[in-house]
Structure formats: structure tokens, C-alpha cells
Amino acid sequence: MSDAIIVLNAGSFSLKFSIYGVANRELNLVARGQIEGLGTSPHFKAKDQQGRSLAHASLGGSMPGFGHPEAFAHLSVWARQQFGGKFSPVAVGHRMVHGGTEFTSPTLIDAEVLSRLERLIPLVPLHQPHNLAAVKGVIQLRPDLIQVACFDTAFHRTKPKVADRFGLPDEMFGQGVRRWGFHGLSYEFIAGQLRRIAPDISAGRVIVAHLGSGASLCAMKDGQSVDTTMGFSALDGLPMGTRCGNLDPGVILFLLRQGWNVDRIEDLLYKKSGLLGISGMSNDVRVLLASDRPAAAEAIEFFVHRIVREIGSLTAALGGLDALVFTAGIGENSPVIRQRVCKGLAWLGVHIDPDANGHGSTRISPAGQSPSVWVIPTDEEAVIASHTLAVVRALKGGPQEETRLCRLTD
Ligand code: AMP
After folding, report:
1. Which residue is closest in CA terms to ligand 1's atom 23?
2. How many other CB atoms are found less than 10 A from the CB of residue 177?
3. Considering the entire predicted model, what is its pTM?
4. Which of 129, 194, 220, 250 has most Cβ atoms within 10 angstroms of its Cβ?
């Protein structure tokens, strides 16, 4: 029987999971899925490494008490039935949104770490409580499992202070009012892939465009974050599916004076803005591109305009640009958005080959063109699994060699 690593990504109403088998120096994805509808009507879905359905079932009607612990319990029972004789879980790796300044690398979770992570909740009240609920669910059911937290903020702790602060009184920086940056696990994966695919380029000045339902850009030098568009929260920077992106704080003051309360403003900024807010119809780029409504075209135009503007800004922060990488749902799958962004960057010398872009080739700029342009699928779960395995090996005193990550597409 082989060891297995479970990766959990807990959201407010869902628990996403991946299960990796460990063999020699390799981590192999064996299943991936999610339990959606937590607190209402939970639904379980799982697929194998080829994307074939392994499970697709409603877990009952109205179940308000079905939270993260219950979801992990269901996952454990299912995994035992599905893989019982083949794999035995040894550890759980968690996507943890915020590590503050204390957690800059993957961390073994014990009671002390758990309480330090709870103290970071005020910085991310909408996300960290759910991440921690999943940790506690595992402790309840399987206290024997090793648990490891991997942080979305950690990759950005290499940013210089000038890119980390706001123009606010200095004491606020010390209180945590700073530009933390997010999507760090995705950027770490891309930095690793780029080192493998194009080592000389990865050593240079690179901007990675993580364009998914959440969207941000990261400027990297030698594979390390030097600046990013997201700031204190996951609202800043680029407009997203339903989030506003960069906003003059004067708007918040205006709304407060108009009698809006915090919950209503939060709902506006997180759930009713971005592509959905501007188009008035959808947060999905596919739907907007297929629509002939002027508001859909305006939303896409705004999205592309802001990406182009922010790439210009980060290029200045880097002192030039050697490569641009597209990743995440939109970046990996939409040739139209890639083409429109690159057209807006023609002044920078960015050119792409339309055929390579249409096929989603790894390199979509012509050979010899600089800056080069790349499409690299991201895999945050693989990064978490790899870190978790490294912690397990360190605890067991085993060899610390690098683990090979096997993606679905490998
Ligand atoms: P992610 O958060 O990385 O899973 O990305 C989800 C988003 O990717 C969705 O909201 C879609 O807007 C977008 N997406 C997925 N496939 C495509 C596609 N073929 N073309 C454009 N956008 C896509």
C-alpha cells in the first residue's frame, strides 16, 4: 500500500480536494473533486487523473449542519471505499490564504500554529476561518494525520518594502496594513515550471498574469516576487469576475456617507462588481465574449485595458520585460483575451504568433522575439502536495530530494 497526500482548499461553501499517491520520488494525482453546497444542500463530485467521473452525488436535501468537518468525513469514507487497498493517507496539505509576516514557508500545523493562524483572521475574515475549519475537521476525525499549511501570501514576502506599503502613516504598516499580495501558490508553481522550460528566461524579468475568476499579476526577478497587483486584500489590482479591482478609497467614504453599511459595501466589492457589475449579465469571460450586448463588450474592454495598464506599471517596476506568462482559467483558455492584451502591449515589443496562440502552445511568441510570451497551466494543489510531502519526509528523517510533480497533462 502506498502513502497518499490529501490536499484541501476550503472555501465558504465548498471543500475542494486532491488526492496524490506517493511512489518513490513521484507524486501522482489519483483523484480531484469538491463538495459544494456546504451549509445548504451538499453535493459531491470526484474525477480521476484523466478527468473521468468517479462520483457525482447529492448528499441529501437541506443539511444546514453539514460543514467542513462533515465534508472531510464524507471524503474520508469515499476515499477508503475507492482506494482502500491501494493508498493510505499520511498527511493533509491545506491552502491557507494568509500567513502574515510569521509564515513565509509551508508550516507543520500544531496547536500553537493553529492559534497563531487564528490571530490572522481579522486580516482575511472571509477566507481564513474556512481554511481553519477544514484543519479542525481533520483534527476531529483523524488526529493522527500530519497537517501542513501552505500560504498564498508567502511567495510575495520577497517584495521590497517600497512595493509592500501604502501611503499611510508608518505605524499602520506594522499593524498589518500592507500590500500582502495573493495567488502565491500559483506564482510559485509557474516560477518552477518556467525554470524547467526556459531557465535563462526565468532568471530574468517576468510578469505572470494569473487570470481566473480571481485575477492578479506578479512581477518576478529571478523567480522571486518583486511586486504584484493585489494588495491588502484580494480586491485590489485587476478587475475580476465579481470583484472590483483597484478602487479610489474615496468611493468607500462616499458610500459610507450615503448610509451604506460595511456588509453592503463588502457585498458590492466582492460579489457585484468586476465583469459581472459592468456587464450586468455574467462574470464568465466565455459568456461575455459570445454576447453581442454592448455592456458585455464594455466589460471585456475594461478588463483588457486594466491588464495592459498594470503590465505597463509592473514593467516599469522591473525596469523592462523579458517574458509574459498567461495562466489560470482565462489566461490558459482564452486566445481572444491573450491576443487583445498582447495587442495593447505592442509598444513594448510584445508580438504573438496567431496560430500558436490559437492552439494554446506553451510559447506563443515567435522564436527569437523578446519579450517572449508563454501559456503555462497552473497547479496550486501540486505545489501544496509537494510541500506537504517534504514536511512528511523531514519529520520521518527521510531523504530531502526534490519531488517530481505529475500533472494531469504530463
Ligand atoms: P479559475 O478561477 O482559474 O478556475 O478560472 C475560472 C474562469 O476561467 C471562469 O470564470 C471563466 O470566465 C474562465 N474560463 C474558463 N474557460 C474559458 C475559456 N475557454 N475562455 C474564456 N474564459 C474561460
Report:
1. 330
2. 16
3. 0.94
4. 220
